[in-house]
Write a structure and sequence with these properties.
With 441 residues, this protein is an alpha/beta fold. Helix content is 43%, strand content 14%. The protein contains 18 helices and 14 strands. The protein has a six-stranded parallel beta sheet, sandwiched between helices. Strands 11-10-9-12-13-14 form a six-stranded parallel beta sheet. The protein has a two-stranded parallel sheet with strand order 7-8. β9 (318-322), α14 and β10 form a beta-alpha-beta unit. The structure holds uridine-5'-diphosphate-xylopyranose. Uridine-5'-diphosphate-xylopyranose binds at residues 158-162, 215, 218, 222, 256-258, 260, 262-265, 267-268, 326-327.
């Protein structure tokens, strides 16, 4: 606990891709942190310094703060609540079939807070929740803890990216806090002070809305450049050059203009659908975002069509798929484009040789190995063995500087279909490959 601070202990409820980096980050900043999760197996793993998912640089920091005692973890959520002054709600908000977020985990943890309220608590929404969720949280606490319960509810959306969560925690572009009391504002400004980052202070509704707006804009940028790539494909232009040419305008910016097989992951797809759902609930026209989603959903068909363009007949062909995670530097396959590509190509009667540096164990839960139809390989080179084409679905760094002569020696046909435009066409063509990018010449 920092000397003279207004609070002592920070509780992190939910130790997933958001909660665990947040718990470790606050502990590293010098705060006393207690983390908890309803999954006791996950808590046991974390308690011995193991990260239950692949996140670069997180495990050493976890071990350090456990050893220093600045971070403790418990499977007893009630204990964590009783010991904490600030409580961050970091539980999952998965998506329901109608696109709206499933807030049952949020409600469950709020009820546990209400049942263990032993003094004033600041309850902070970090999970991505629909605007006006805080009002429900307040109502639920009062309902289960009584009208004299002492607490505030605030919003503090996370902007961590998987694969760079540790970096993003310590170097945030901005911190957004939505508060409705001076005490909540004081405590959160104090908590984040060591980061010296720009802090946007708003009311709670505005803060909740910022998160959905941010992710929806990122998705819009991606679908925009993917739409442009379709025109580049039709007229023979290069979308990577278009991206460079427009991205140099600081009002546009170069990031999130990488055309390809589309966005996946646990956040962008879910947050976009939730945002559309909220707008519809309030009779606001968000058809622009529906188009963003439609464009993204169509990427898989376009990619499979490109594979057919390259190979003509797919039946009985052997294809290497390089990259299964939804993005590089993660083992997360939630809404990963690879899952739809695998299904489609198996339907076409192909034999698949899969490789990913981190995500194969997760994919095996969905697509068990079934030689010779479906094989998991130990390297990109092994996956290329006797393949009639290499399909790049995730742009892991290691695919960008392979020894193409070695690949050529083992492959059946020197064909590359680059679903992430991550290779240099000139380099691979000079090595004797046919190269098919997305919207590239
Ligand atoms: C996102 C937001 O970036 C982050 O701020 C928020 O807190 C959580 O959601 P994340 O889902 O981890 O982070 O991944 P991100 O880096 O945003 O990539 C999302 C998807 O978009 C990936 O599938 C990626 O491959 C794809 N993408 C990204 C593109 O297709 N083109 C791009 O130019 C950038």
């Amino acid at each position: 606990m920092a000397k003279g601070s207004s609070f002592k202990t920070v509780g992190i409820l939910g130790l997933g891709h958001v909660g665990l980096p947040t718990a470790v980050g606050f502990a590293e900043l010098g705060w006393q942190v207690i983390g908890t999760d309803s999954d006791s197996a996950k808590v046991s793993l974390i308690a011995v310094g193991r990260c239950p998912f692949y996140e670069p640089d997180l495990e050493p920091l976890l071990r350090k703060n456990l050893a220093e005692g600045s971070l403790e973890v418990t499977a007893d959520v009630g204990e964590a609540v009783r010991k904490s002054d600030i409580l961050f709600v970091c539980v999952g908000t998965p998506q329901k079939p109608d696109g709206s977020p499933d807030l049952s985990q949020v409600e469950s943890v709020i009820r546990t807070i209400a049942e263990n309220l032993n003094g004033y608590k600041l309850i902070v929404e970090k999970s991505t929740v629909p605007v006006q969720t805080a009002q429900w949280i307040k109502r639920t606490i009062l309902r289960y803890a009584g009208n004299d319960a002492k607490f505030d509810v605030a919003s503090n959306p996370e902007f961590l990216r998987e694969g760079t969560a540790v970096h993003d925690f310590f170097h945030p572009d901005r911190i957004v806090i939505g508060v409705e009391s001076e005490r909540a504002k004081k405590w959160l400004l104090e908590l984040y002070k060591p980061l010296n980052a720009p802090i946007v202070v708003t009311d709670v509704n505005t803060s909740e809305l910022i998160k959905h707006a941010a992710n929806s804009f990122l998705a819009l940028k991606i679908s925009f450049i993917n739409m442009i790539s379709d025109l580049c494909e039709a007229v023979g232009a290069d979308v990577t050059e278009v991206a460079k040419g427009i991205g140099l305008d600081p009002r546009i910016g170069p990031q999130f203009l990488q055309a390809g097989i589309g966005y996946g992951g646990y956040c962008l797809p879910k947050d976009l659908r939730a945002f559309i759902h909220i707008a519809e609930e309030h009779r606001v026209d968000f058809s622009l975002l529906k188009e963003v989603e439609r464009i993204n959903d169509a990427r898989i068909d376009k990619f499979v069509r490109k594979v057919k363009q390259a190979l003509w007949v797919l039946k009985d062909k052997t294809l290497a798929i390089w990259g299964l995670s939804f993005k590089p530097n993660t083992d997360d396959i939630r809404e990963a484009p690879s899952l739809k590509v695998i299904s489609r190509l198996l339907e076409e009667g192909t034999n698949l040789r899969l490789y990913d540096p981190a995500a194969m164990e997760n994919v095996k839960q969905i697509f068990p190995e079934k030689p010779p139809k479906l094989l998991y390989c130990k390297s990109a080179l092994e996956a290329a063995k006797n393949a009639h084409a290499i399909l790049i679905v995730t742009d892991w760094e290691e695919f960008k500087n392979l020894d193409w002569n070695k690949v050529k020696e083992v492959i059946a046909l020197p064909i590359i279909v680059d679903g992430r435009n991550c290779l240099d066409p000139k380099t691979v063509r000079e090595a004797g490959f046919e190269y098919y990018g997305i919207g590239r010449v």
